[in-house]
Design brief:
- By secondary structure, the protein is α/β, with parallel strands linked by helices.
- It is built from 10 helices and 7 strands.
- The chain has a single domain, classed as Rossmann fold (3-Layer(aba) Sandwich).
- Strands 3-2-1-4-5-6-7 form a 7-stranded parallel beta sheet, sandwiched between helices.
- It is globular and about 55 Å long.
- The chain starts with 8 loop residues before the first strand and ends with a helix.
- The mean pLDDT is about 95.
- It holds the Pfam family adh_short.
- Keywords: Oxidoreductase.
- Belongs to the short-chain dehydrogenases/reductases (SDR) family.
């Protein structure tokens, strides 16, 4: 049990299913008061009813005020979980790139902008960013997703280094494959890279709670990602060559 979560006001975006729903369930089990946000009002309502939370459907970029009201005026933990798994190359449409940037990065920026004044005034608050291992590494066949997830990780890192001495805690969750609808939508690239080691959404929630207990910034539900990240930094050309081999293997299956 994470004592700080008992009766805490928690917001989880994109919580109508997948990782978000698992996070909402786990926070509720810890005794938190949970706001369930999702674009799909029916899904948000169903999860909220299941866990005894409050559904606040709508765009994750503009949920803070309504969520704060639903929690009686205070958000203690904000989980920026909503995301788009946008596939494509540099040739993906401008609208695809813009939407990925808006959901995967700017929604986090807007939430932080709305929350930080209150958190800094009282000297505590917790921001959880569901990033993806693609934010540390990359993902074949998904330039908009990979680039914007790097942006999400960079923003979480910046928040942590800027405000940790003022009581703001930040966690970046970076799983590889997770058995969700988003994984199913990755097609043959996901079949090759992600599905062999895919985990359940509940495993991600468990990893986050353990990371919160240990006050860790980087949460790796797939521990092997740490070694990949180190290899990428230490020998970038070797790492890129290995990833290119995956790219070629994927191309041969298409």
């Amino acid at each position: 049990m994470v004592e700080a979560l008992h009766n805490a006001g928690v917001v989880v975006t994109g919580a109508g299913g997948g990782i978000g729903a698992a996070l909402a369930r786990r926070f509720a089990a810890e005794g938190a008061r949970v706001v369930v946000n999702d674009l799909d009002a029916d899904k948000a309502g169903a999860v909220a009813e299941e866990i005894g939370g409050t559904a606040v459907p709508g765009d994750a970029s503009a949920v803070v005020d309504a969520a704060r009201d639903a929690l009686g005026g205070t958000v203690d933990v904000y989980c920026a979980n909503a995301g788009l798994g946008s596939a494509g190359t540099e040739a993906a449409g401008e609208d695809v790139w813009a939407r990925a940037w808006d959901v995967n990065v700017m929604a986090h920026v807007r939430a932080a902008h709305a929350l930080l004044p209150g958190w800094l005034e009282r000297g505590n608050g917790r921001f959880v960013s569901t990033v993806s291992a693609a934010g540390l590494l990359t993902m074949i066949g998904a330039a908009p997703y990979s680039v914007t997830k790097h942006g999400a990780y960079a923003f979480a890192e910046w928040l942590s280094l800027t405000y940790r001495h003022r009581g703001v805690k930040v966690h970046a969750i970076c799983p590889q494959g997770v058995r969700t609808d988003m994984l199913s939508a990755t097609g043959t690239a996901g079949d090759l890279v992600l599905k062999p080691t895919a985990i359940e959404p509940q495993d991600v929630a468990d990893a986050l709670l353990k990371g919160m207990e240990e006050d860790r910034f980087l949460i790796l539900p797939h521990p092997e990602v740490a070694a990949y990240y180190q290899a990428r930094a230490a020998e970038p050309d070797r790492w890129l060559t290995g990833m290119n081999h995956l790219q070629q293997k994927w191309e041969a299956t298409r």
